[in-house]
Amino acid sequence: MQARGAVSIPRAWPNWLPAFGFAALLGLALFGMELLEPFFRWVEPDARSVIYARASFVDLLGRHLLVVGAAGAVTVCLGLIAGIAVTRRYGRDFLPLAGQLASIGQTFPPVAVLALAVPALGFGTPAIIVALMLYGLLPILRNTLAGLDGVDPALKEAAIAMGMTPRQRLWRVELPLAAPVILAGVRTSITINIATAALGATVGASNLGDPIIAGIINANMAYVIQGALLIALLALTVDSLFDLLEQQLRHRPTD
Amino acid sequence: MIELNKVSKRFNEALAVNDISLRVEKGSFCALVGTSGCGKSTTLRMINRLIPHSDGEILIDGQPIEQLDPVKLRRRIGYVIQSTGLFPHWSVARNIALVPRLLKWPAEKIDARVEELMALLGLPFDEFVGKYPHQLSGGQAQRVGVARALAADPDILLMDEPFGALDPLTRDKLQEELARLQARLHKTVVFVTHDMDEALKLADHLVVMREGRIVQQGSPLTLLRHPADPFVESLLGGLERGLKQAGLTRVKEHMTSLGPQVPAHSRIPGDFTLRQGLSMMLRDHTERLTVVDASDVPIGELSLRRLIKESQSERGTPRAG
Amino acid sequence: MVIVNAGERHPSPNVVLIALGIVMLCAVWLLGVVSVAPNRIVPGTSYPLVAALGMPGALLVTLLLGAMTALALRPARIHYLAMLLLLVMVLLLMPFGLMVAGHFLIDPALPQARLGLGAAYWTLSFVLLLYLVELRLRLAIKRLPTALLLVAVALAWWLCARLWLDDLALVQEFQARRGAFFSAVGQHVLLVGVAVGSSLLLGLALALAMHRFHRLRKAGFALLNFLQTIPSLALFGLLLAPLAWLGANVAWLGNLGVSGIGNTPALIALIAYSLLPIVRNTFIALQQVRPDTLEAATAMGMRGHQRFWQVRFPLALPVLIEGVRITTVQAVGLTAVAALIGAGGLGTFIFQGLGQAAMDMVLLGALPIVAMALIADAALGALADITRHGGAS
Lengths: 255, 321, 393
Hints:
The structure holds three protein chains of three kinds. Chain A is mostly helical.
């Protein structure tokens, strides 16, 4: 990559522990919930079953991840493309509007967006994916704009003066320098979407929110705890993975 | 060679640069000097088309720049700015290698070039190659900036107050090294600065600008001897003009052969400036200095009386610097 | 530097407004304008523009939107003002369009029949909002006049709904549960208020402590970040079980009203979520005051409390209010989720509506929540602006 790239600077190892820990706990909770049966029996002595069994936890997790992942993939692409487009010369007219839209849109509570999506799109997983896409787009768009805007104008000019083409400037200078801010936007978006997707259980999608909703409806605290535990661990695992990614980025000095 | 013919630049209605004409010969070092907002940076940035000019024509080696592809044009012009503009996410080596990479040089050639440039700029290869800009001092960063500008061996070098943010000692050192580099590389340099001493030290063609116009241009000695108006004179330091002029010539150009008298006690190397010689006379309370060569062998004498006579007889006859 | 070509006579077309205009024209012609349902559960049939408004109505709408788009081709201040006028006209005419549609499409013989807003109406409202934002930027209209304009339009809509729009499903839904609606709004505001108020007090104390004691800093932020990461539904769920157990097994807590379901877990969770933005902003506000400013204050002979109240506090206030704004907007949404665990508030309508597949009831819950969030955002944003002196942050 660089001249005699062998000369490397000492870099501290990122802290893998939280990510590993949460992932391990998530795995344990997924496959070992039965081991806790005595505890849940103690919580709900009168219930017919104390381990949620309408679907396997792995299934629920898979569906949860699918929804969040599908929405996330689309939003990252769309948000980046939109953010880049409105900061180029041809799209600059749309920049103020996009900025305002991103900040006004985040005022809308996610649960309201989900609720409004149902009348428009109907019940079920596709509606949730669309709602998550709409809502998750905004933090990514906003941070992409902020990140690209935050690149030192002197650097942008230096890039022009060195004879870089617009495309080279974007890919080699602007995006790498904006990456930490953009990544923070993706992190916010995904974190919100994991939480909002869980609410999707109330609009007919089946995912990790299911045990909680079923537990509330049937007054079965054991179900509630199981669902809540899994969602919390999922959110913490994903969040600590993002933390790792951010540390990786930060270790390449970018300020 | 760079030529500007009746070039103007308007921002909205305001004239930032007003009808200037300028010719920078191949291999010469031209300094644009003036107070802030006088249009010197704008002039510089029009040359590599960072800013399009509004009127007139700018020629590089006889070709109007608007006929050239801006990207290709910029790749053959080195550019150095005050804030260095080093890319913080790239190592020193990668920063220096930028333009050669853009030009798709083969990897071995780039590696060799980076090593050569780092040696040229006094950056020990093993120590600096993997460092990132935030690990460098201001002076080191600016050395990298100059190395980056020189990487693809451009004929032309544009420098926008490159040493403006450095402390005086580092600045002096880098100025000297730039002068040394220029003596070796003979680039066509356009150098923007508000520091007249810096301009006098480095340039062989001075352009004084004010409110978008060129007030006076010529060799440093011409300007020192015949400032066109009070503004140029004040920029040149008013009363200290004489000393500045003395700073431009070497002791050995003014020495006389050793006379029959007892040689003066104080000795000065012939490569020192006349200004340093005068300073030494004041320090040592003497009117005469013995001029020595590099191996401390006396080669002549510097006498205050003679210097004054010399400048009286020379008044009015410009002399090449 | 932005180089504006100062040719006033031939400004280049405003592509943003043209694009928005075309989107609106496409929406009204291609999407369903209204839907008609025989009762509140059955999904309605959707009707296009001409069927809903008749040919004259359709032409009027097209004319208005077309004029807005055409004016954007030659943007000048006067044209922007004209566009603003047209925009307000369209906004005011929207409820009348519903009346006309009701007149055409609702069979008076069916008392249960109701009119729903179609996709075109939603799209139109949303795009008009964007249009207003863009016009506001172009005309440099301040926050307050824009807010007043929107309030006036909302009032006009409200009046139309009260007086003439009995056919509208949303209105019927509202009239059917007027009492429950107002008490839900009250509960919602109360929950948000109590949560934000207590987290403000707690957060200030915590931020001051973290400012003073360095050791608390890392642990404090780690804990608050951790809490913020846990999804709301999960946190509510995790609080349910232990609180239910406490309520049932510790008599005095039970007497205080602590139980798994209801306000207690909701408030605990809301406060937990609200702490991070408040603490973070207070902390930043305290840290950002430059040491030399404080040193100058000391050098001028200010005492400790004078320095706090005259220098530190005024400089920190806007950032603190910004934190309250973020917290409040977030709490409005989270309180809606809290309805799932029986905390009451507008979320009740959303989840009941979803359970019964009664979409109008969902709207009755969701729309006021959105309005509440927007109002809180605008009001606290304005307050932060007022406390900011001379644009300093």
